[in-house]
Amino acid sequence: MDPARVSTGIGGLDAAIDGLRIGDNVVWHCEDLDDFARMLEPYVAGARRERRRLVYVRFADHLPLVGGDDVQVHRLDPAEGFEPFAIAVHDLVEETGREAFYVFDSLAALLDAWHSDLLLTSFFKVTCPFLYELDTVAYFPLLRDEVSAATVAGIRETTQVLFDLQVVGDETYVHPLKVDGRSSATMFFPHLIAGERAIPVTSSAASARLAATRGRMRRRPDHWTRLVDDAFDALDGSVAEQRDAHALLADALLGRDDGRMAGLARRHLSLDDLLVVATRLVGTGHIGGKAVGMLTARAILADDIDGRFVDHLEPHDSFHLGADVFYHYLVSNGWWGHRLAQSHPGTFLSAGATLHELMPTGRFPASVREQLLDMLGHFGQAPIIVRSSSLLEDNFGNAFAGKYDSFFLTNQGSPEERLEALLDAVRAVYASAMSEEALRYRLSRNLAEVDEQMAILIQRVSGDHHGQLFFPHAAGVANSSNLYTWDATVDAEAGMLRLVFGLGTRAVDRTTSDHARIVALADPLNGRLSDPEDLSAFSQRRVDVLDLAAGRQAAVPLSELVATDVGADWSLFTSPDTAVLRRLGERERERGRPTAVRATPVVADFRGLLGETAFPTLMRDALATLAAAYDYPVDVEFTVNMTSAGEPRIGIVQCRPLQTRGPGQSVAIPEVADDNGVLFAAPGEFMGGNVNLPIDWVVMVRATPYLGLGSPQRHGVARLVGEVNRRLKDDSFLLLGPGRWGTTTESLGVPVRFAEINHAAALVEATDAAGNFRPELSYGSHFFQDLVETGIFYAAVFDDRPGVTFHPALVAARENALLELVPDADPHLAAVVHVARFDDLALYSDVVSQRVLCVTRGAVRSP
């Protein structure tokens, strides 16, 4: 007997198809499971006769298909998600080993868990080849009325054997539709199974009679289409029918009701709301955390009982690329093996790096391309933004702030050109899910083994055309809880804004020398900076816009835009820059010239918007309403456009729980007896609440030698700091450096990635006049969110301000332990990165007095 041949248990059927082969996956397309049992019983009996190992993969609620003491039954739960289920099956098959005989539950049962024919097909495409590789034989029932023709086609493409099974009265007919590597003159006719015989139905009359028993052929819509159609029908049904439809649609779009955010969304998004989302869904699957947060926040504000926000909210018509497309993209491009490798801790990062390289090169199925082209028809040539919206993103406990990418598209050109630009953006967002920074963030948050899919939110960009430029009047970040209070009179619970003119990218990123306007909503006009010189220095100078002619995002000097008609009074956003005017006037007087200035310089202080419109009150009330509904502080990204009547229209583009800490127990700041023991002391300019923190090490980047480095060497310093960060992860250490930590512009500070500073107890930024390094208090930015989530205290030291003490020599005077900690470090960088050990250093801060002090205990005055 040929060891590669296997019996179906029916001799005549074996003869008809020249037998099964080791490695065959056998799919039975049938009416119901009773019909499937007619073919399963002889297969199982034959396997027992040949003493084969029988394995039953159980995942459905229907009655068991096979039993007996000799059957290994493995119960798996597809409700945990596609990836955990697929990995569990893979691990089971790998552990079982070669030449096992498998029976799987009804494949259609996976639709009840995933609501996606696309994922069902993807599961088969990743499981079937592995079964084949291990020389197994597997039987799968595929119920005819539960799956679409496209699903059958996808499975047929992958499987080795596909039978159509039809039972007419007491007669059983098997029609081989695919038998890989075998053929004969009668193989692909229907066969009447009579005992051990399989009689081909070859006559035209008999074939026509058999076909007629099926009645009228109809195209079965996929599971998702049926689900949405049923939900529309439920709108006219009973309350119970609407409730059931809402629950099913929420499962499919939002995820199972097993999390705080999902529960909040279910309470506030009605069946009508969900149906709007469903009609704007490309592909299938969950819409992800960013989309859920945006939709839920809008619903909360729209349902406000006082109706305060309805007339001031900018409407939206967002689309969603379902998370199922992400997995199908991986599977259809042949990359599932790399994804499997990520399930093992030892290859989590390396497999991710491989996928990061591959992701931008893949192809999308024609159905997805067609749906995206239709979506572009909806938007016309309006600019759009393609935003990450992963399953874990913007959830309670894990914000993923700035970890995944988003891309503005000017959306200009032919439909084909716009589609290719959109697909490139989607590929890039997918690739960002595998970036080292994102993966290390997941590791640090113990999320490496949690199911993480990437859905995508596609939004119309808020704003208007201003010549060839497109931008909103203002945008920014709003926090309902303000831990950055620069004096004791600021009400932290009134919230704060980080506000910029134009696109909001300058409010969330740390990439330029510009500064956002920090607004305490308790007193919007009482800014952190009262000195005209400070207000001028710490102001926005450039505006992020979309350049429609160039087809890209651009940064335009604010001074060039002031003369532009933006459909609103410029006094809402800018005021004369009195500091610059004074300096210009002094210079002109020194030269004996008139003091008139042709082009009046301006500062983006938003005094008109904050003092003359309802905007700050609306934002304060909206933040309070959202925080109350969330029962948690919130972090909101928003846009502002002024109507011709001078009324603000606010667009809520993102909302997530704000991972924050309260001020904590009050801390008494000790009195200093010896200034030489003070590393720094400053009023205000810190975030992290009240602390009394022992410091074991100070890792200092020395400003003067750092200034002498070129760009590659400065990046080398950042990597070295990252290595020190890893070596000191179990100790309490403080990072001290010139300018901005975490900037992508190395001329402004040290360009570390957050994973390179994530173990620090405190992060301190200091000024350095020679290098023009200045801190930038980034409250509300993605960088800030990382600091708060990780529990890192932040302080800025402006040594040119009154009341500030700064003695970096306290660190420099101690032995540099850099090469001891990192023996293979570049010795030349030891002059730049100084690592000093302390056994008596402590960091103190007090929110009420707005003081921060880092001092050796020996320098503290005894009580």
Automatic annotation (TrEMBL):
SUPFAM superfamilies in the cross-refs: Glutathione synthetase ATP-binding domain-like
Protein name as catalogued: Pyruvate kinase
Keyword flag Transferase: yes
Keywords: Kinase, Pyruvate, Transferase
Molecular function via GO: ATP binding; kinase activity
Coiled-coil blocks: none
InterPro entries assigned: ATP_grasp_subdomain_1 (IPR013815), PPDK_AMP/ATP-bd (IPR002192)
Domain Pyruvate phosphate dikinase AMP/ATP-binding: 286-671
Pfam families according to UniProt: PPDK_N (PF01326)
